[in-house]
Inverse folding.
């Protein structure tokens, strides 16, 4: 890792909102009685990240393309196995975005692109201007974005790895992750994969052929490889060639998604620099969400603001 390169932190916000939604006790409510457990958990995560890393450049990416992503047009069943978010959670996503904006952080969200695409596109743009990326997420899909100086950080487990650590975790290189997921499928996103090809077989195939494209061009060679069921795998790939290519379209993270800050401003890397906090908005959010005094103080201090007095009791 090169310490000379400025770092852009890229946060997969939805992962941490969902994690808080499932793990935080349902005892937090806003002034109108709506649950706020996910906002409280996300705020704690966010303020801890800001305190610990003190990032100069940071992007917070949210998923808004829940059923309107370009991938749904390619494959209507994409993520169709997921239940729609309840209204109680949708409201909290709005609050989480508002909190990030009030703290002066760049927020990315788009109706046609997922958070992964926004992170990939932001990192791609930042690299052109000499930055390296630290992707804050446990999602294996995002490992395909890692290059020489980048890192991925599973914040909850305290694990960080670079491009060289991807193979130890998944059995394939970073640049092969999309091909690997096309072969094995991804149950989380409702991508079937190629029947009969699991993680071990996919790793063997990609180690030998290098890419899905090369594999499909040289299917006749598969039967000569030394692993159980090689001939059957070749037959399956011949029968599912077009599907495999479609799955690869779904598993490949876009690098050309529109980058906007707060939904309005163009987003070259300068727009990802931490901006000044909006103290009035932060105070209003803390009041509406009934944050306790400790959380309020940490939020204000992380934003470089004086701590506002509060009447909150929770």
């Amino acid at each position: 890792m090169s310490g000379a390169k400025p770092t852009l932190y890229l946060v997969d916000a939805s992962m941490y909102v969902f994690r808080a939604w499932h793990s935080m006790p349902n005892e937090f409510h806003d002034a109108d009685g709506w649950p706020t457990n996910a906002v409280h958990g996300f705020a704690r995560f966010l303020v801890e990240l800001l305190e610990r890393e003190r990032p100069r450049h940071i992007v917070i990416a949210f998923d808004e393309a829940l059923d309107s992503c370009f991938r749904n047009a390619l494959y209507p069943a994409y993520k169709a196995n997921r239940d729609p978010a309840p209204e109680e959670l949708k409201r909290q996503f709005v609050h989480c975005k508002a909190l990030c904006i009030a703290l002066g952080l760049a927020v990315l969200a788009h109706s046609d692109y997922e958070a992964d695409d926004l992170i990939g596109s932001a990192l791609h743009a930042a690299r052109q201007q000499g930055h390296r990326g630290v992707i804050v997420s446990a999602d294996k899909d995002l490992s395909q974005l890692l290059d020489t100086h980048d890192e991925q950080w599973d914040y909850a487990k305290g694990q960080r790895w670079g491009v060289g650590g991807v193979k130890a975790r998944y059995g394939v290189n970073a640049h092969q992750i999309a091909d690997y997921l096309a072969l094995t499928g991804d149950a989380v996103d409702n991508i079937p994969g190629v029947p009969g090809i699991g993680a071990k077989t996919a790793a063997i195939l990609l180690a030998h052929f290098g890419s899905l494209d090369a594999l499909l061009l040289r299917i006749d060679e598969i039967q000569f490889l030394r692993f159980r069921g090689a001939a059957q795998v070749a037959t399956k790939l011949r029968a599912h060639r077009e599907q495999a290519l479609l799955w690869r379209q779904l598993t490949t993270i876009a690098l050309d998604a529109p980058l906007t800050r707060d939904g309005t401003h163009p987003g070259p890397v300068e727009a990802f620099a931490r901006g000044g906090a909006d103290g009035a908005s932060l105070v209003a959010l803390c009041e509406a969400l009934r944050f306790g005094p400790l959380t309020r103080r940490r939020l204000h201090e992380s934003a470089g603001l004086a701590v506002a007095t509060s009447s909150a009791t929770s």
In short: The domain at 170-251 is CATH 1.10.150.20 (DNA polymerase; domain 1).
